[in-house]
Write a structure and sequence with these properties.
Layout lengths: L2 H7 L2 H6 L13 E10 L4 E11 L5 H8 L2 E4 L4 E5 L2 E2 L5 E7 L2 E2 L14 E8 L28 E5 L4 H13 L4 E4 L10 E7 H4 L3 H7 L2 H4 L3 E4 L5 E5 L5 E5 L3 E7 L7 E6 L2 H9 L3 H4 L4 E5 L2 E5 L6
Parallel strand pairs: 1-8, 9-10, 9-11, 11-16
Antiparallel strand pairs: 1-2, 3-4, 4-5, 6-7, 6-8, 12-13, 13-14, 15-16, 15-17, 17-18
Helix pairs in contact: 4-8
Length: about 300
Amino acid sequence: MRHRIRVGLASLAVAAACGGCGLGLGPGPGTSAVSVTVTRGFGSQQIRVLTAAHVPGSETVMRMLQRSFNVQTRYGGGFVESIDGLAGNGSRSDWFYYVNGVEAKQGAATTAVNRGDRIWWDLHDWSATDSIPAVVGSYPEPFERGVGGRRLPTTLECGANVGAACKRVTAALTADRVPVASQLIGTGSGPDTLGVVVGTWSEIRSEVAAALIANGPGASGVYARFTGPDGSSLQLLNPSGKVARTLGAGSGLIAATADSSSEPTWLITGTDVAGVTAAAAALTQQALHDHFALAVQGNSRLPVPVEGSQ
């Protein structure tokens, strides 16, 4: 059973209790500075963005979406079928949502909205994978506001030969009010911690998050993989999981993923030191905005997945 159906069905009990409305948690004091972004094609086409200065304490992700968009639902109101008339085809593409760059663990009707949340709905092809644990396009989230209303500590692991890139990443996070704790590479971030790993692919490939990426989109939700001796090439995949482009020396990647027992880990990596340096330079809101992951080579920045094939 696909992950998107499992998420939708998680809302059914609540939805059934109110005749299909599927819209509520109890009232509370309210919250502020919440944004909703709606895109299609892995963020490649922006549909609409709204920011709410104040939302009621009873707000859920579904209710907030329905306040400002024309929404059609299925499964008793727990699963979004269309937004402003845009719908998937049921067998290949559907709507998915992320809060602060993290894939939802339950239905939108039962997910509370917290202060500063960045909610992102995207209509995309799920033929290669129906689960993308984390995306980078809401940066500086999840580092600044956290996950599920909890700000989590951030650990930073850096390789031996990427000192300049590591300093740049540290400076970027610090500028975004994110304190980081440095630790040895390979230590791991722990179950209630966000991790950032900076290093060449050959140095970080044993990391859990890197192993997920090496196993393809079905394991990691990342449409890119390193190949060749010591990760000397970076393959960029299309939405079907096929190779669309191959980058060589000096190429880098910013991507995020997680397994079922941990919070997301971000990898800032590359084929070599030059690739890592280029990736570190792209750790900005402007460069990452609305991208699921980002490949770089020199001054070129390539959102992934990409269209076409070799």
